[in-house]
Amino acid sequence: MLSMMSSSRKSGAAFLVGLLLTMQGFFVVTFLVANAPLEKTMGAVQKIFYFHVPCAWLLMLSTFACAGGSLAYLFRGSERGDRLALSSAELGVLFGLCVMVTGPLWARAAWGVFWTWDVRLTSSLLLWLMLIAYGLARRYGGEGGRRLAAALALFAAADVPLVYLSVNVWRGLHPNTKTVSSLAPGMRWPFFLSLAIFSALWGVLLVLRMRVERTQARLVELAITVEDAEGRSP
Amino acid sequence: MAAPSWACQAARIAWKDLHIEGRSREVVTTMGFMAALVVLVFSFAFISGQEVTVGPDVVAGILWVAVLFSGTVALSRTFDRERESEAIRSLLLSPAPRSAIYAGKLAATALIMFLVELLLTPLLAALFSAAITPHALWLGLLLLLGTIGFSSVGVLFSAALLRARSRDALLGALLFPIVIPVLLAASRATATLLDPTASDLEPALFWTRFLAALDVVFVVVGLWSFEPVVMGE
Q: How many CB atoms lie under 10 A from the CB of residue A145?
């Protein structure tokens, strides 16, 4: 019991440090992004890139974290896996929303349209839709909803490479994977730091969300125990 | 007496479903009617005046959208039967492996859907004067592959949704995001086959192969996860 408490205290302290570093990081990144060199043709519009790309990466990460957690839940009955899956799916929907808002804003300025059926746009949209479907299955799926959602996450993860490949062929090849490595040195630092800080924010939110779920499960357990005890003593 | 083999058990479950369907013809009629309606709705929406020619892209799209929507109807009806008098419980209590139950259900659903599609495609060809005869067999293969891909996910989801209150509304919402690659591959390949001016059938070949690979992935994930998904029933 004592060791459990000290370990939870230790993890609590580590979490607090992480939280403070993340908050600190957002100040630094804002400063760095503001001072990063302006892109030649797009100017200030390009700065949305520091925000948009990390969100897209976290959307991807959320999908795989959700599938990993679902795998553990479905085949090993891990409640922790289930909490991980739910929390990361919700975060994926959140960061996906950021992608879907910032992407068209940039596209409007750079390409003159809000939306094109580009490979990245389309596959991100599909990933996002799958995570929303996961949430729908969890909320309205009834008794089997949790297991159904887990299966959906597995199909979604299996779908990722297929979606990417099919959309790629569907729309013709748009090779733009080299954008990051071709960044100007002045832009590289703010970009990678922004990526790290956004990932840290994702981690902090994930831990918090999983804790809420765990507390909720404990509360339900406690309520059942109390009810049982009351039922037994007249 | 030795227990029947896995394939034999799967075939018996499929046979049971086909037998019920053969007597009531409920799914074939409701799904067929629904599919025909979808096609007609598209005709009214797209065609105006004397001009009745729409491109092969549009015809392929209409065909697959009709398959998707009517397939959802077929899926929810096949599983509603299992809910009546708790038939699903007896099915799951039988000593047959869960994966065999999945395979049997998948085979029966895909066959019923395929049958409806075989009736639907000539209707489409007549309404939009699409050239389906030059590559009829290939088109049939595409329909079969697309249907297997769609129902491999659909059977699993409908089984898990059996006890949900809003299952009919949910099924489409959960199923469509996952099966978009199936729709994409199938409609692209169909469009190439329906295009009489297409000199190069390479895209159709690519998409057919892609669809086959997709089916393998989806069926494997389905077989593998069916047991834990329906465990609590």
A: 19
* pLDDT(A21) > 60: yes
B181: chain A residues, CB-CB within 8 Å: 159, 162-163, 166
Predicted TM-score (pTM) of this structure:
0.87
Among residues 128-187 of chain A, which lie with CB inside 8 Å of chain B?
A: 129-130, 132-133, 136-137, 140-145, 147-148, 150-152, 154-156, 158-159, 162-163, 165-167, 169-170
Q: A82 pLDDT exceeds 90?
A: yes
- Across chain A, mean pLDDT equals 83
List of chain A residues whose C-beta atoms are within 8 Å of the C-beta of residue B173: 133, 136
Q: How far is A155 from chain B (nearest CA, A)?
A: 7
For A107-111, A175-179, B3-7, B218-222, which range has the lowest pLDDT when averaged over its residues?
Answer: A175-179
| Minimal CA separation from B151 to chain A, in Å | 13
Other CB atoms within a 10 A radius of the CB of residue A200 amount to: 17
